[in-house]
Sequence to fold (57 residues):
Amino acid sequence: MNRWDLLFAAGMFASIFVPMFTIFFVSGKHWREAQERARERRMAEHRMNARLLRLDI
Fold:
């Protein structure tokens, strides 16, 4: 295997796997943010329910 074959193989590997890993890590970050927003919404709803129960409405 000469140098050009090695460079070709490395380029193919990078062009296929680097975008997949990038998408995986970015989507993981968005997923965590979405989970955190959903948790905050649930906590706000629980706080509102607790206030209504204290007021006996």
The mean pLDDT is 86. Helices lie at 3-55. The CA atoms of residues 23 and 29 lie 10 Å apart. The two ends are 79 Å apart (CA to CA).
